[in-house]
């Protein structure tokens, strides 16, 4: 019984002399190779060249600070709950007197980790966050030989200080690739 009409009848008739030396098949194969040789290359020579991302591309996460450099995250856990891949873990801590210049809210994330091997870059953590504390940037996680290299800790995710590290902060903020340019 046939489930589809896609099956082909196999021709089992004996091969002619020309078929038996496979010359015609070799020429056909070379024809395919030559045709592709002159087509536009789809491979991007990374890292010398970089591909152009769509405006809605979602890459590596960034933990945000406010204009005074205080961490926005209040460790409410909503991003972790929203994450379908269970990639986010955190530990909350109480802000102590004298730490107001470090953390914007009374609670902050003492530990914040994202497992990039689990993450599917869906952006739900960004959408769930009520504090504008996390967003997905336009860069992607670099290759690594170790699994632990893909566990991004708070230090890896936190955006540079906007006052103390102004240049690095500006660079981190304007990471978007110009989608109109072509290579
Ligand atoms: S982008 Fe999606 S999968 Fe990745 S950490 Fe955020 S919610 Fe989870
Ligand atoms: S990043 Fe946003 S949602 Fe996640 S714990 Fe911090 S404040 Fe809450």
Summarize this structure briefly.
With 183 residues, the protein is an alpha+beta fold. It has helices at residues 17-20, 23-37, 78-82, 124-128, 154-157, 166-173; strands at 61-63, 88-94, 107-115, 134-136, 151-152.
Please describe the topology of this protein.
Elements lengths: L16 H4 L2 H15 L23 E3 L14 H5 L5 E7 L12 E9 L8 H5 L5 E3 L14 E2 L1 H4 L8 H8 L10
Antiparallel strand pairs: 1-4, 2-3, 3-5
This protein binds iron/sulfur cluster (2 copies).
The site of one iron/sulfur cluster has 14 residues, from helix 4.
Poorly predicted regions: 176-183
Alpha carbon gyration radius: 26 Å
CATH domain class of the domain at 61-173: Alpha Beta
The string of secondary-structure elements, in order, is HHEHEEHEEHH
DSSP helix fraction: 10-25%
Mean pLDDT: 89
- How many strand units? 5
DSSP helical segment count: 6
- End-to-end separation: 53 Å
Shape: elongated
CATH architectural name of the domain at 61-173: 2-Layer Sandwich
Strand count, sense and barrel status of the largest sheet are:
3 strands, antiparallel
- The main sheet orders its strands as 2-3-5
Instruction: State which percent range the strand residues make up.
Output: 5-15%
What binds here, in terms of ligands, is: iron/sulfur cluster
Q: Structural class, judged by helices and strands?
A: alpha+beta
């Amino acid at each position: 019984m046939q489930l589809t009409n896609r099956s082909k009848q196999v021709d089992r008739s004996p091969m002619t002399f020309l078929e038996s030396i496979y010359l015609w098949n070799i020429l056909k194969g070379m024809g395919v190779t030559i045709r592709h040789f002159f087509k536009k290359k789809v491979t991007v020579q990374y890292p010398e060249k970089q591909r152009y991302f769509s405006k809605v591309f979602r890459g590596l996460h960034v933990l945000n600070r406010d204009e005074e450099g205080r961490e926005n995250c209040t460790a409410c856990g909503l991003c972790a709950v929203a994450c379908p891949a269970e990639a986010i873990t955190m530990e909350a801590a109480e802000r102590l007197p004298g730490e107001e210049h470090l953390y914007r809210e009374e609670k902050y994330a003492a530990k914040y980790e994202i497992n990039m091997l689990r993450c599917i870059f869906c952006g739900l953590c960004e959408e769930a966050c009520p504090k504008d504390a996390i967003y997905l940037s336009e860069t992607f996680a670099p290759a690594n030989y170790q699994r632990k290299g893909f566990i991004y800790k708070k230090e890896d995710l936190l955006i540079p200080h906007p006052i103390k590290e102004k240049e690095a902060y500006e660079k981190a903020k304007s990471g978007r690739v110009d989608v109109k340019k072509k290579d």
